[in-house]
Design a protein that fits this description.
287 residues; four-stranded parallel beta sheet; 13 helices; elongated
Amino acid sequence: MPSCLSRRQLLVLGLASLGVWGMGRLARAQSQIPPAPVRRVASLTTLTADILYRLAPDKLVGIPSGRLLEADPRFQGITRLGLGNQPNLEQIVALQPDWVVGASGFHTALAERLQALGIPTYLTQVDSWAALEATIATLAAALGADPDPLLREYGSLLPQELPPVRPKTLLLVGTQPILSPNRQSWAGDLLERFGADNLTAALQSQGQFRGYVTLAAERILEANPEVLLVVNPEAADPLAFFRSRPFWNRLQAVQTGKVYGFDYYGLVNPGSLEKIRVACEQLARIF
């Protein structure tokens, strides 16, 4: 996202777009799938924009602004609809789309307004690999496209068999607060599929983000992971904050050099198919 948003805001908005915002309003808009084939579709998320382009590039007429798509030559000439958290209703309506695709919870209010105007809207919630595959299949069906090549391509990124020993793993996300995914999140599901023993998988969220638990320094020390993954959207160097914490050098993973920084997109927020590929390849090298 552009620099007008802080990295902290990026984390909050990104988790909200994945449907893990636990204190928000309940989704009231019903997802609608118009009769196939859809001829003009607008996407409000970078991930679905990428999927839609891969399935039927000539049918994608609107996409969100943001750094994930700005530099991608595939999307040149396609109308930008504003940031993912602030799509422009008038621009969307002016495109006369047959279908608008957004994120559950994140775009619920907008979906209600679009549906009141007679524009079918579909809200996704990609919080697991199975949900990603279901989203690809649903979008392909509406477009009259074949989902199988894309499903096979990305399915091949997953390991065919899990490692014989599952290393005790902790993923730290952000700094204020420090979050870690349970199995009800995209990150938690991905860790499990690559054979990590996610130490927070079974913990229930008590905070504002469903799918993520808040960890104090004492909990991190108690977990003492063998492998430590760090995502910090609040800084260019994801490890900088943690290196200065008193608990850092006492962790087993730090002492054995098994600490890995990840991009926010791909592991925490799927972001795009390419970011998912990069995250999967990095996880495969680690586990």
